[in-house]
Amino acid sequence: MSIDSTAPAPVPATGGLDLDAYVRLVNDEVGMPLAPDQVACDFDELPEWDSLYLLKLVTTLELALGRRVPVAEVLQARSLGEIYELAVSG
């Protein structure tokens, strides 16, 4: 049995989106300034956060992951970290 070195590497359980990539996605695609240490902050601690960012984030995550994000659960989240966990646990 031979090993095909051209075969793609397995995709991580995160759908290929690690936490660093998620922070870049929020900054670059969603347009909201976010430092890595703010991911776990409650939304009340993020002065920039509003419902328009939420809509943009859900849409951007769905495009990046190639699947739907559980919006009903996302609406219950209290931090961007919780949304990340919901999105990548898929």
Describe this structure in words.
InterPro entries: ACP-like_sf. This protein has 90 residues and is an all-alpha fold. It has a single domain (19-89), classed as ACP-like (Non-ribosomal Peptide Synthetase Peptidyl Carrier Protein, Chain A). It is 46% helix and 0% strand. The protein has helices spanning 19-30, 51-65, 71-74, 80-89.
Number of helices: 4
- By CATH, the architecture is named Orthogonal Bundle
C-alpha termini separation: 34 Å
CATH topology: Non-ribosomal Peptide Synthetase Peptidyl Carrier Protein, Chain A
* Helical content band: 40-55%
Write the layout of secondary structure elements.
Blueprint: H1 19-30, H2 51-65, H3 71-74, H4 80-89
Q: Top keywords for this entry?
A:
single chain, 90 residues, mainly alpha, Non-ribosomal Peptide Synthetase Peptidyl Carrier Protein, Chain A, 4 helices, 46% helix
In short:
Helices cover 46% and strands 0% of the residues. It is globular and about 30 Å long.
